[in-house]
Each structure stands twice: as C-alpha cells, then as structure tokens.
Structure of Glyoxalase/bleomycin resistance/extradiol dioxygenase family protein:
Amino acid sequence: MELNQVTVPALDVAKSVAFYQQLGLRLLVDAGPRYARLECPDGEATFSIHQVPELPQGPGVTVYFEHEQLDEWVAELQRLGVVFDELPTDQSWLWREARLRDPAGNQLILFYGGENRKNPPWRL
C-alpha cells in the first residue's frame, strides 16, 4: 500500500492553491472553484484542496512536508512573504520543524527528520 494523496478543506480553493504553489507544489487538476489537486516536487504523493461551506472546528488537519534543506526553504518562503507561527526548531523527537497555517487555517509542519523520520532510536 502507498499513500496517494491527502485532502484539506478550504473556503477559497484558489487562494489555497496559490499558497501551496508558493511552497513548491505543482497544479495537476484545476476544477475550481470546488477542487484542485497538486503534486509534490519529489516522489509520487499528491495533495488536494476541497471547498467546504464551513471549516471544521477544533484542531483540524495537520500536514507534514519534509525537506532536507529546511532552514533554507523556510528562509526562501519568508522572502516570498509566507508567515510562520514557529521558525525551525529542534524537537525532542529528533526532527527539526517549522510551523505555519495555510489560508484555511490548516496546520502545516515543514520539517526534516532524516533517518529519524522512520527509524528513531525508539522504533519497534
């Protein structure tokens, strides 16, 4: 089994598409204003945005995007005007993470876990 795609909710799909394109995703399907699907620049995973009449309540969705040059990526995104809630920080679970929200309020974590992503010292 392989993860194909993740879908996040949005009130304004076009605004969210523009945001994710800033992160480096490429538009594959534009069925606006209700739906769009993008692909990650590396690997086979896709990412979609689906228009909803209202956003879910509570903590909602958290999506992780990994990049080996995390600090440089974050600095480039800041130059493009992307606002972060938390800049890259080393975490106790051995990942380096930066946090932000997309235009719909979905939480994104840009991170680098390297070998520890799938093989932390406490792996079963």
